[in-house]
Amino acid sequence: MFSGQAIERAYPVVERAARSLKDIERPTLNDLRTMLQNAWTAEHGMAAETQYLSRRGITAQLLWQEGKDRLLPQDFQFLLDWLNQMEFELDIMVAGFDENGDGRILMGSGDVSGIFKDYAGFWAIGSGGQNGILMLNYRRVNPNTPFTRGETVPARSRQGRR
Question: Nearest-CA neighbor of 110 among 5, 16, 1?
């Protein structure tokens, strides 16, 4: 599931991670998390290069190779930090089952540089994500809550019913 202003970047991240996992016979939760983070990092680098460097005729590789020799160290570091701080306005949530058959949710966000966190229980993204999480907590939804009850909590809260 995706949300955010830069949703077009979600597809390359997911496709790149899926290609990386293709050769692993039984990927673990940690394999998935690693591949998603690697794919996010690669897409972030390409987007930063496209947005800031390529229109000036520079590639990230050229900046790295020649910048450290041609620029003052503090200027070179400033440029690297500036490129690294470019954030995606994007959330990616992946839900599935781990090696033990337990339900898991991995969520990566531009707010945390694409580090995919493991949420046991529930999570929500999108424009109403925080309100959804608060409502699920308020209604005391937990990993043992039957799915049929948990999935209707947000719908009932929108209608003003308890």
Answer: 5
